[in-house]
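Morning, I've got a small favour to ask if you have a moment. You're getting the sequence in one-letter code plus the fold written as tokens. Thanks so much in advance, here it is:

===
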Amino acid sequence: PVHHNPRGTVMSISRQKALMDLAVKYDFLVISDEPYGLLYYDNPRDNDTGPSSEGIRSLMQVAGEKEEWMRHCVVCGSFSKILAPGLRLGWFHTHPDNIAKIMPSGVLLSGGGPPPVLVEAVTTLMKDGHLREHLDELRRIYASRLGAMVTSLKEEMSDFATFHEPSGGYFLWLKFKKLPAGKDTTQFLEFCRDKGVGFLPGIRTSVDSSSGGDCIRLSFAFYTESEIQSGIRKLAEAWRQFCGA
């Protein structure tokens, strides 16, 4: 529900509460995948566990308002998105009774799960405050890169595309106003292979490939501001060529 991949949207507080009411009513467990929850770039939070404004919160912050909600919710976080890719290390946030049920899992008890050395290293980073400092720096860097992408898109592509400006995460979701007859963004990606740009076609994010043919997902996390600006110019020119303009 927070900084959705690929759309970059955030589920409203009212919908999160409605979801938890349904979970209690029908007795099902909500597992919320929130790898980008700590990567927010506006609406600053009071601290790392809560926002200062409605709309950007972890589902657990909502679920934590009522014990019955908390018992029906498990939030999953990942250090691979905020420290280094490939760490394969994360955390659960849920009611203590749920933790007690998770801990006897064979994956955890066998030693084949969390790597002990990495666990100790990350724990030390957290205790010493270095993780918080690192997150502050990541937010500053990613916010600047997102800003560069948004500005470039407005300058270069506003005539033929619209987009949702995310408040966190890695990605921006762009929708073309009109496609060339009989074509979609998967074909556009193939057209761009030799243009020096890449993206994820929207169809590849659809459960049944029935939607997203006019959309693409752009990532701003890896590239510098100048690379992003250059990439958007190339993308815009490639689209004009693709459309035969």
